From TrEMBL:
KW Acyltransferase (keyword) present: yes
Keywords, alphabetical: Acyltransferase, Transferase
Protein name per UniProt: GNAT family N-acetyltransferase
InterPro entries assigned: Acyl_CoA_acyltransferase, Bact_Acetyltransf, GNAT_dom
Length: 169
């Protein structure tokens, strides 16, 4: 019997290509039919390996989850950017390759980020999800997130609602 090791660690510069691949696959899976095609392509294409390497080099808080030696997902996080909300931390992005979704890895990645924020005395956390991304909204609700705010974001000619889910303040 073999056990595949799951590792969650800070991203390294040599992870940039794998993170870009995860971003590409996850965004196409999550947002095809939600974000207009041309806008989705533009958003995916701007986040290539060069972009991720630059973010890692700038010490952006990025963790990767590897499963059996393959980068299966990533999360970016830090201080809350929404000044009107009383939560100090924010998960900016949390994505898994589609084939790794639905088996508990997202929850593990989420909990690792939450522990790291708590370990840095960050009180409360928020994450934004497009309301039309039902899988993401259901995921955050299952993890105990409460809807605390909403806003509209424009993608080309389309306006989409985003929901803020929060934990502890």
């Amino acid at each position: 019997m073999s056990t595949d090791a799951i590792e969650i660690r800070l991203a390294r510069p040599d992870d940039a290509h794998a993170i870009a691949d995860v971003h590409d696959a996850a965004w196409r899976y999550a947002y095809r039919g939600v974000i207009p095609g041309r806008e989705l392509e533009r958003l995916v294409e701007r986040r290539g390996a060069k972009w991720w390497r630059y973010a890692i080099d700038r010490k952006t808080r990025i963790v990767v989850m590897s499963f059996g030696g393959v980068i299966a997902g990533y999360a970016t996080y830090g201080r809350n950017r929404a000044v009107g909300l009383p939560y100090q931390g924010e998960i900016f992005e949390l994505y898994l390759r589609p084939e790794y979704q639905g088996i508990g890895l997202g929850k593990r990645l989420f909990n690792a980020v939450r522990r790291d924020l708590n370990g840095h005395d960050v009180k409360g956390m928020v994450v934004w999800a497009l309301a039309d991304n039902v899988r993401a909204c259901d995921f955050y609700r299952r993890l105990g997130g409460e809807s605390v705010d909403s806003m509209v974001e424009r993608f080309g000619e389309v306006k989409l609602q985003k929901i803020a889910f929060a934990w502890g303040a």
